[in-house]
Amino acid sequence: MSREVSQALVLWGVDYSETSRIFTLLTPGRGRISVIAKGVRRKNSGLASLLASLNHIELVYLWKEGRQVQTLTDCSLLHGFEALKADLERGSYAAFPLEVAAKVAGENDPSEALFSTVLQGLHALEAWRGVAPLHAIWQVWQVLRVAGFAPSLDVCAHCG
After folding, report:
1. pLDDT digits (tens, 9 = 90+) for 57-73
2. CA atoms 65, 66, 71, 75: torsion sign
3. Three-class SS of residue 67?
4. Do 122 and 82 touch, CB atoms closer than 8 A?
5. What is the C-alpha separation between 160 and 157, in angstroms, rounded?
6. Would the CA dihedral through 129, 135, 139, 142 be positive or negative?
7. Distance from C-alpha of 157 to C-alpha of 113, rounded to nearest angstrom
8. How far from 155 is each of 35, 104, 144, CA to CA, in Å?
9. pTM of the shown model
10. Phi and psi (nearest 5°) for 140?
11. How far out from the chain centre does Cα 61 lie?
12. % helix / strand / coil in the chain, to the nearest 5?
């Protein structure tokens, strides 16, 4: 078992036991990973607010090859995207590209480009003053492009 430090975007969390939750994260070095945060559901846990969806965190976890859920040991907040969370519409549209990224990211499949595209997109949406759905569509396009799934728009599918 090795101790690893990484940046991550929190995708979602699910309750695991009376005091623990399992979080799915997007990381640059390992792609999509799941970690268990033991004791995070206790009322005096300092980690609960750090592991909210959309948060950009730095985490420390124990990696064991072959294990589907790794063990979180510590984390700190790098950016909470408070402006997105404070606005229901923009927060909803921020979640859409994040969900797409979660679907195209492989488990334990490094993707620095995918991680930085999603992170830059969230920062851009936070500063964006235009129509949120347009930005979300553009960001999803960027996520699909980086992941290799974007359609080609310069060649006709029928005649080439």
Report:
1. 999 999 999 999 999 99
2. positive
3. coil
4. no
5. 6
6. negative
7. 27
8. 42, 24, 18
9. 0.90
10. -60, -40
11. 16
12. 35, 30, 35
| Backbone CA torsion sign across 155, 144, 29, 6 | positive
Count each helix (H run) and each strand (E run) in the chain, helices first.
Answer: 4, 5
The pair of structure tokens assigned to 29 is: 């070095």
Backbone CA torsion sign across 34, 14, 53, 136 = positive
CA distance 151 to 53: 29
Query: Which regions of the chain are under pLDDT 70?
Result: none
User: Which residues does residue 9 pair with via DSSP β-bridges, in sequence order?
Assistant: 26, 56
Phi, psi of 76 (to 5 degrees): -140, 150
